[in-house]
Description:
The complex is a heterodimer of chains A (about 325) and B (about 220).
Chain A: H1 3-34, H2 44-54, H3 65-84, H4 100-120, H5 124-152, H6 160-169, H7 177-193, H8 212-215, H9 221-246, H10 260-287, H11 297-317
Chain B: H1 3-26, H2 30-54, H3 58-82, H4 98-115, H5 117-122, H6 126-129, H7 131-147, H8 151-172, H9 178-206
Helix pairs in contact in B: 1-2, 1-7, 2-3, 2-8, 3-9, 4-7, 7-8, 8-9
Amino acid sequence: MTPAGALGAAAQVVLVGAGSPLLVGAMRQVRARMEGRAGAGVAQPWRDLRKLLRKEAIAADGTGPLFRIAPLVLAATALVAAAVVPIATTASPLDGSADLFAVTALLALGTVALALGGLDTATAFGGMGASREMVVLALVEPTILLSVFALSGRVGSTDLGAIVGSALHRPELVVSPVSLLAAVALAVVVIAETGRIPVDNPATHLELTMIHEAMVLEYAGPDLALVEWASAMRLTVLLGLFANLFAPWGIADASGAMPPVIALPIAMAVFTGKVALLGGALAAGEVFMAKLRMFRVPELLAGSFVMALLAVAASYFLA
Amino acid sequence: MNESLYVQLLDLACGAFVLAAVLVLWRRDLGAIVRLFAAQGFALAALVVVLGAHDSDAGLVAVGVAVGVLRAVVLPLLLRRALPAGGEARETEPLVNVAASLLVAALLALLAYAVTRPVVALEPSPATHAAPVALTVVLIGFFVLATRRRALAQVVGFLLVDNGITALAFLTTSGVPLVVELGVSLDLLLAVLVLRVLTARMRAAFGGTDLDDLQELRD
């Protein structure tokens, strides 16, 4: 572990931890304004979290330790992912072990823990939400792996920092068909994995349609705060990973000339701008879209899987 | 033209070409399928023009422009006019559902790559490296022909096959003679005109173009 890597990881965790509720707030604000409402303000998610944290911790009757551990596992995996994904710097503190597969597995671990927590309540909604989430996860996971794998072909390494770094040095790779196909595939799965429209609607509690909300229906107080915070962090990490894979400019380069003390704040500011832009575009797109029927979701995800597969094939055969 | 720019443009055109074919499988809306076919025709024309510009072959560029006019403008226009004014605008029930047919498309792509390896090995160049892409489109076209029920979707499948064959010809040979390409294009135009008339007659006679309903003879 290099000092630059440790510094970068600490900065990333602080940035994602503090900034992700603001991102969610900004996205809600964009939506509200486009729908002609005033909106609750960008800081509203933080106010919600504060309110929830002050409440008494309470668990539903008959639930076991799994129900109590799930929010902790979800938040912990999101924090570790925030530390190792190249967000502000390509110098990851866990180089070598924190590659594409590790990050995907980390995010999946959080989802599975939450799904088990939802099952543990033994309510109809918890089980339904958990089973739907597993359906989506099973289709999303291979696509995330494949689409990033397509980008890793030209680097010869599955290390996310190395992939982002290579795009930084060879900008012409960003408009190749491999990149474009992988970008479309990854965009679809990021939307599905973070539970946004058209796969899931984060603003609804309608029993027929909810996926993520159904799983966390029984959580209250600090546990709910933890789940909401972790979900916001996962959204930020995935959007940030997407932004840096396809538009890496501004990130602090591990082999760059600038000392990390100067490069890091710049990279953090640029990252904030990129993620805010992506989040705003996502929220604006959601205004014009309806949620897909659950039975149509596999079609959408199969389509993104094919694109990821074509991206991998193209990275080997066209190169 | 600079070599790396040429490879980039060629790859980009091939990517758009195969992407349009995959999206044809994805969409149910017949209007959208025709639009995608037009986009594919445009990608094919771009492909031929890029090849021509690289070889500094004015004839090839002219063929490319002609291909573009026919496949991106004329044929989609004809197909659009064959779309019924109301109703039946969707491919409601393909024989293989959309999710499965997308996965089949992925398998067909891998098959095409496996099959064309000897062809690519004959003379490795950026253009022949893209030959599997063209074969993928041919196979996807056959798949559309085999699994879609609406007459218009099947016509698009047939045209996908032809687009793929044309792309394969341009990618593996150093340019198709103008006369040959002209003959193929006129044949294609005629086939689409005949199919369009046939579709209109079918709709007038049976009220629909679901080809699976046309399997037995009646008085």
